[in-house]
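User: Hi! I have a protein structure encoded as tokens and I'd like to know what sequence might fold into it. I'm fairly new to this, so please keep things simple.
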């Protein structure tokens, strides 16, 4: 079987663009990046990656989001009716069922990055940015300057758990927990006046994470299985290494596994099949993007598994030989958000089935890209 190429040599960049973010948040010592007024109301001060503060005087009425990650968080917080536009719109089936209809009604200002002129002329009073200070994804053009945002009456805030990973001040240590994502939920809750809902979401995340931590407490680090995220849609000629500064590393770690590429100091890096063979992972996640229907997504999982079984470089891997595949979509693994906690639970229940049991995800909606037959039996199809 010949390797199948989807994104070519620039797989890591393409994955970053479609996954809408890079690193997870920092550890428990992540700096406080939001300060609310008395009683938890306005004004609210939020910091960017360099610590510069922006003061939000009142709840925004017209919000534009850079991509599906920030859009989903606002929908989760109950502020979706105030979103007047987005870039990188969520693909069909990407959002959980309860949010999908509302998300589909949000005007698309850019299929990739939002053009500068369109963003400045959108009428927004708040722009939630996932990407940080870098050229806008999907093109060579840079985004507006901070002076241009001010002139247009748009306040500019970031999701720190994704926007800061590539900055000079970013933590160099691997991301091993979801504290930064929980901080982002609280930040957006404060900024949009939905603090109660934000705390509800964080409490739900912590409940799932705490149950998994308790269940795996007795499993020594050295006995936790090694784990490789195979992003099938990023291409098969050159696999992408999901590195230590990506949110997936935190998800994998919290799930009681060891990311085989945790030691590369980046979010994503182009890899090689020789690297994967040398790591010889105990488990492989078939991380496909949601295709918009259960049948189509299941077919994509099957194709990813068939590739690994038929490709000479990978067919002898331990995980392939033993059928140790985790069928879990790339969105909930590599995009920072509330559902990362669901992914932790699902991975843990697959690689530690005697210790962790599966549970309904937050709101009862299945995680995007998750397959109901995830896990593995001798045939490797989870049934």
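Assistant: Happy to help. Inverse folding works backwards from shape to sequence: for each of the 383 positions I chose a residue that suits the local structure. Here it is:
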């Amino acid at each position: 079987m010949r390797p199948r190429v989807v994104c070519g040599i620039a797989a890591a960049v393409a994955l970053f663009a479609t996954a809408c973010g890079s690193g997870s948040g920092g550890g428990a010592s992540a700096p406080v990046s939001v300060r609310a007024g008395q009683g938890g109301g306005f004004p609210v001060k939020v910091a960017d990656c360099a610590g510069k503060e922006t003061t939000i005087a009142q709840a925004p009425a017209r919000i534009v989001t850079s991509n599906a990650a920030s859009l989903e968080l606002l929908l989760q917080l109950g502020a979706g009716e105030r979103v007047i536009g987005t870039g990188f719109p969520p693909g069909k089936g990407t959002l959980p069922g309860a949010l999908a209809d509302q998300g589909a009604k949000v005007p698309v200002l850019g299929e990739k990055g939002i053009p500068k002129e369109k963003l400045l002329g959108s009428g927004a009073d708040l722009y939630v940015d996932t990407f940080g200070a870098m050229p806008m994804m999907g093109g060579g053009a840079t985004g507006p300057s901070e002076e241009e945002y001010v002139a247009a009456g748009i306040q500019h805030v970031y999701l720190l758990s994704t926007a800061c990973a590539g900055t000079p001040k970013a933590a160099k240590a691997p991301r091993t927990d979801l504290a930064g994502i929980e901080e982002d939920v609280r930040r957006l809750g404060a900024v949009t006046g939905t603090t109660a809902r934000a705390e509800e979401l964080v409490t739900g995340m912590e409940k799932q994470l705490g149950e998994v931590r308790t269940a795996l407490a007795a499993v020594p680090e050295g006995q936790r299985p090694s784990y490789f995220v195979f992003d099938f849609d990023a291409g098969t000629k050159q696999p992408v290494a999901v590195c230590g500064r990506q949110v997936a590393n935190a998800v994998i770690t919290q799930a009681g596994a060891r990311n085989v590429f945790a030691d590369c100091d980046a979010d994503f890096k182009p890899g090689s099949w020789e690297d994967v063979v040398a790591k010889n992972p105990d488990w492989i996640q078939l991380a496909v993007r949601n295709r918009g229907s259960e049948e189509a997504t299941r077919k994509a999982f099957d194709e990813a598994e068939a590739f690994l079984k038929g490709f000479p470089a990978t067919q002898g891997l331990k995980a392939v030989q033993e059928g140790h595949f985790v069928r879990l979509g790339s969105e909930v693994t590599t995009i920072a958000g509330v559902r990362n906690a669901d992914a932790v639970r699902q991975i843990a229940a697959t690689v530690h089935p005697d210790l962790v049991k599966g549970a309904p995800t937050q709101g009862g909606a299945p995680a995007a890209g998750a397959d109901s037959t995830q896990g593995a039996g001798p045939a490797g199809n989870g049934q």
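A useful reference point when you look it over: The first strand starts at residue 34 and ends at 35. Feel free to ask if any position seems puzzling.
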